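Q: What does the assembled structure look like for these inputs?
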Amino acid sequence: MPVQYYIFLSIALFCIGVMGVLMRRNAIIIFMCVELMLNAVNLLLVAFSKMWADAGRVDAAGAQIFVFFIMVVAAAEVAVGLAIIVMVYRNSQSVDVNIMNRLKN
Amino acid sequence: MGMNLQQVVFGVLSIISLITALGVVFSKSPVTSVLCLILTFFTIAGHYVMLNAQFLAVVHIIVYAGAIMVLFLFVIMLMNLNAEGEPQKRNWLKYAGAISGGALLVVLLAALREASLPSLTPESNNIGLIANLGQTLFKTYVVPFEVSSILFLSAMVGAVVIGKKEH
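A:
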């Protein structure tokens, strides 16, 4: 089975995430689309790990370790980001990203 | 067109994951988006099992479906958001977003269509088992592991400081 299938699936998931970030205004949905993009990258890393393991490389597990670190960063990002969203909601009763343009003044 | 079992499972999982990923973007209510994203994560965990990353699949379900998405669901229910409350973008902005994402998809697909890479064999190996991963993590990558614990601590402190009510 060609590894291209997994590459194409990851590209499709990543582009759906990009589309969601560009199309929606709800900050929580935008956040979830970022998670989707991170997961597309994770899937690609695992596919390449399997590819190199099949090719006989002994250090192919490094890609899966890298996926663990991406999960760590994603979890930290979600904790801080959701705290920021809750604060924005508490101050302005909305999670619309357009209200954050008041930062530019 | 001969399809082996690996390709059939891959196709089914891929179709479900793409449909639910589109559901995240296009559903009206945020709770439906969260449930769609949880389904997407489960299908991605299925892909991990297919790719000999068994331990990673379990960790993925625990971390994403068990912790992160529950956090999202808590925040959405805390805010009591509903579908009518969300202000919509102007239509041309939506079309521009969709066209940009589609153009990115086309460019990446066209660039990687002709790439020659080794193919995946159906045979399993023990690369994704916890013994192998633990050896790699605590021998080769022990310094990044410790640094990530500092990152977690600072993220935790940051979330508490941001979320605290100021007096």
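The CA atoms of residues 95 and 101 of chain B lie 10 Å apart.
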